[in-house]
Amino acid sequence: MNVEQAAAAILHTIHADTRPDADPPAQRLVNECAHATSAAGTSLTWSVTHSAPLTIAATEGTGHALELIGFILGEGPQISCAETNRIVLRPHLGDSNTEWPGFTPEALHVGVKAAFAFPLRLGAISLGALTLYRNHPGTLSEDHLTTVLAYAAAATALLLDKSATETLHGDTIDVLPPILEDPFTLQADVHQATGMLSAQLKTDLGTALSLLRAHAYSNTKPLTSVARAVIARKLFITWDTSNFQSPDGTENS
Amino acid sequence: MTRETRLAEVFITLADTLTDTFDATDLLHYLADACVELLGIDAAGIMLSDLRGGLKLAASSSEKIRNLELFELQINEGPCLDSFHTGQPVLNVTIGEAREKWPQFEAVAAASGVKATHALPLRHRGNIIGAINLCSEHTTLLTEPDIALGQALADMATISLLQNRGNTEQAVLADQLQAALNNRVLIEQAKGILAEHAKITPDTAFDLIRDHARTNHNRLLHDAENIINGTLHLHPTTHHPKTLNP
């Protein structure tokens, strides 16, 4: 199973339980990721430009504790990862105190010996990080690594959904159907159309992608065919035609 | 410049990735261009492993091969996939032979003018981390020296790609591969933004970005990022002859 298939399987599983008292998908994702990788804790951090990182979900105990410490101190693997957009690997957390002088002693105090954080991004759209904590030092096994990569792809899809929900405040659609595949596999057309639309509407890439998805959904068309129409300049999506208001609340047409 | 001097220059460039001014995306595009220039082929595309047995497109020398490679991934058949899965080169497959091996791939390859296709694995210490696809628009086949040179270029680029951190840990490999693949998405987004601003197609936008990066010795990624953050504005009339709406 390649990453997109594995990510799709994870997304289907975490969205499957729709009972009112079920854990939200993000919580299920961190729980299952911790279980699948023998981690002491995992967390999902949402970090968009110009605002403080937010915890979307964390496992009880270690995951929660370290998210809180990271949030208070403004440092830690999840913060470094979201800032640099690169994988952060600290298999021996106790070896150095200089990188996160406040965070590391706190992590060691709760028994964490290794931390691994994976960036969640789609091109220039930065979304946050998925972080794993372990009570024993050492590198991730190949098995656990490929498992985390699939969870990170699934988490990226979840955060894109979250961004879309925050973007779209229209009358017709509040929530898009969740992405049920690795968003990375979206065709090149979709990424190009995202860029074009962001330039047309003078908005960021994440918002442009949400609008593309909304237009496809409300017109029951595949995302790629909407993207191709945008690239061919046969379709001009506006805030208005997507039935959404711009973020400042005014109707643009 | 003699061919020998040019070869030395290419190998030095492929080896010299430990500088701030060159990254994985540039390296892979450079490799694709070097193959076209030195092997007498018409297009080259590079796919990288997702470390779970899947492949993703990382770089290509032209838009035509980009579309062919994306199609290959979609239908899950073709020379790159064979080379990646076996770890062996796939050589001198003419379009007639391709029909039997990969019927869907052949139909699209033939329609885009490809007459012969080849693929070389990207190998690193027993790991196959991807493959490079080479396409010819004429029936001249690759010679033994061409093949040896192609594999040497691919090996050199692979070593460069993975030695950046002097670490062969699998997670470090994952970081490099994922960054290269993510940069590909970022470049697509930048192409869209420039296409809109300059009223050109995304394909022409890519040529424009690449020409600008080459002329100014910038990283392709650097220029793409600056187009996205609005600090770089390119105009087809001043930098590039091809426009959609002159």
UniProtKB/TrEMBL annotation, chain A:
Gene3D superfamilies: 3.30.450.40. This is ANTAR domain-containing protein.
From TrEMBL, chain B:
Gene3D superfamilies: 3.30.450.40, Winged helix-like DNA-binding domain superfamily/Winged helix DNA-binding domain (1.10.10.10). One of its GO terms (molecular function) is kinase activity. It comes from the Bacteria. Keywords: Kinase, Transcription, Transcription regulation, Transferase. Residues 167-228 form the ANTAR domain. This is ANTAR domain-containing protein.
